[in-house]
Amino acid sequence: MNKNKLIAYDLGTGGIKASLFDVDGNSLAEVFQQYDTFFPDKRQVEQRPFDWWHGVCDATSLLLEKSGCNAGEIACAALSGHSLVAVPLDANGALLQEQVPIWCDMRAEDQIASFFDNLPYETWYETTGNGDPAECYTILKLMWMREHEPDVFKKIYKIVGSKDFINYKFTGVICTDPSYASGFGVFNLLNWDYEERFFKAAGIDRDIFPDIHPSDMVIGHVTAAASLECGLCEGTPVACGAVDNTCMSLGARGLAEDVAYTSLGSSSWIAVTSRKPILDLSTRPFVFAHARKGYYTSAVSIFSAGNSFRWVRDNLLKDYGGGTDTYEVMNRMAESVPPGSNGVLFNPTLAGGSAQEASPNLKGSFMGLTLGSTREDLVRASMEGVAMALRKTLDILQSQVELKGDMLLCGGCSKSAVWRRIFADIYNMPVLKTNIDQDAASLGAAALAANSVGLWDGYDKILEIHKTEDYLIPDKETNAYYEKLLDIYGDWSTTLADLSDRMSNLTYKTL
Questions:
Q1: What is the pLDDT of residue 509?
Q2: Which domains does the chain have, with CATH numbers?
Q3: pLDDT tens digits for 265-304?
Q4: Which family does it belong to (predicted)?
Q5: What is the DSSP string of 55-66?
Q6: What mean pLDDT is reported for the chain?
Q7: In terms of Cα–Cα distance, which of 234, 263, 235 is closest to 248?
Q8: Beta bridge partners of 431
Q9: pLDDT per position as a tens digit, 66-82
Q10: Which residue has the higher pLDDT, 155 or 358?
Q11: pLDDT value at residue 511
């Protein structure tokens, strides 16, 4: 059978998307399977690795059925995976915890002082590029586990990331790639390898971290046992894959220098590809190794974008049923309201503040509500609030690098025409939407798969795959108005961060 198809998995915060591509990188079909996120305690955010695996298996079956593709046509599979996850495996490869902390879990705040006791934070950041709050990174999560779950910790043979766990389930091989390793908190970006002194600072054995292989290398093949569960043929090659930031950067526009994109998913980030990491101690962009040695994807972020918009849908539009069709209603509502949402502002930090924001304790809020405010005002304000929060981080990135040309929007939220217009006017730069939109991470993973089995030689083909669907020039008058609102938004966010810090230390105890 002619093996002329590629299967890519985008393992995200909200669920798993499985996509089928032909050898030229054209998308043939896709399916999405949602899974749950759990919040067991303050600052704790967890998911179940077996929910990822069962999602992969179910999505594969549905994808093959939907596309009519025979599993024997699959030349290779590859994954994009959400970052900073800590999945502990024992010496037999068994999962040691049903639920594991994911990227936005920040329970390890008490371990920070110990980690940086004999290790200057500046040295750590400038070596790793780990600009998110330190407690998000895997090494700190392991320090927390050692203290609070010692029985689990002492059984750890290897710690792996999200897509690495799925690769292990596929192939029985435990490993990672440079991009995912660069989010462990112990990776030297310039040396492209682990940094021994960071293990010593944490008191964690280097050996529990997986070996690092290139993102576009075949690490193994689907086993007989995995084939029975997932539906891929035994012997199907599996590429090492990459972290979601890197896959999306690759799928956005390949390895083009100083070209940026905005990812509009559950969380959101603005990233640029370059030949050197963009590092700044005052604003702390976060950096991941790219798919090719010598390239980096540097980014700034907010923790809550699409998930804040979903919160608005689920809480303010319950009468519409809460499905995806409700987003079309929200688009129409937003179009009916003028820029500035009739004086209502929204801060989208429902998942806390990122390193580029004023405080990790920052909480979401509406401001400017009056008795005359409408639901339509709040819907548009939520769209504008996400764009304003990202514009503030964009200013940080633009102070470090001269971005070339336009801003490509990727992710599910990029489908909204009214939101694209809002972004163009708030960013004050041309905004581009292509046929790839929310398939960028999947295309990046498919490109890794294609290179790993020799179907592609490099990543130039990705630029050819992008076809422009919408190109928006900012409106000068609207932008001038938004610039004034952005000043107010910035001052408000600073004040809100201070109040959120005070609130975080205030608890009510029942007598």
A1: 66
A2: 5-240 (3.30.420.40), 254-438+457-505 (3.30.420.40)
A3: 888 999 999 999 999 998 899 999 999 999 999 999 999 9
A4: Belongs to the FGGY kinase family.
A5: HHHHHHHHHHHH
A6: 95
A7: 263
A8: 407, 472
A9: 999 999 999 999 999 99
A10: 155
A11: 47
Dihedrals phi, psi of 158, to nearest 5 degrees: -145, 150
pLDDT digits (tens, 9 = 90+) for 106-120: 999 999 999 999 899
> Using CB atoms within 10 A of its CB, is residue 158 exposed (0-12), middle (13-18) or buried (19+)?
buried
CB atoms within 10 A of CB 225: 11
| 414, 387 contact by CB (below 8 A) | no
Q: State how far the Cα of 254 lies from the Cα of 213, in Å rounded to an integer.
A: 20
Tens of pLDDT along 378-401? 999 999 999 999 999 999 988 888
Phi and psi torsions of 340, nearest 5°: 95, -5
pLDDT for the residue 510: 53
DSSP 73-121: GEEEEEEEE-SS--EEE-TTS-BS-SSEE-TT--GGGGGHHHHTSSS-H
Query: Do residues 441 and 244 touch, judged by C-beta distance below 8 A?
Result: yes
Q: Among candidates 5, 83, 493, 113, which has minimal Cα distance to 265?
A: 83
The tokens 């940094």 sit on which residue? 195
**What does the block give as tokens for 22?**
């032909």
Coil/strand/helix, residue 8 = strand
Question: What is the DSSP track for 145-204?
Answer: HHHH-HHHHTT-SEEE-HHHHHHHHHHS---B-HHHHTTTT-EETTTTEE-HHHHHHHT-
* Contact criterion met (CB below 8 Å) for 390 and 268: yes
CB 294 within 8 A of CB 368: no
From CA 121, how far away is CA 144, in angstroms rounded? 18
Residue 507's pLDDT is what? 74
User: What is the model's pLDDT at position 412?
Assistant: 80
Non-local (6+) Cβ contacts of 343 within 8 A are 368, 370, 373, 377
Strands 158-160, 87-89: pairing kind: antiparallel
Q: What is the DSSP string of 251-285?
A: HHHTT-TT-EEEEESSSEEEEEEESS----TTT--
Asked whether 157 and 90 are in contact (CB, 8 A), the reply is yes
pLDDT per residue as tens digits for the range 133-177: 899 999 999 999 999 999 999 999 999 999 999 999 999 999 999
First to last CA, the chain: 72
Name the residue among 33, 52, 335, 32 with its Cα closest to residue 167.
Answer: 52
The pair of structure tokens assigned to 38 is: 């759990």
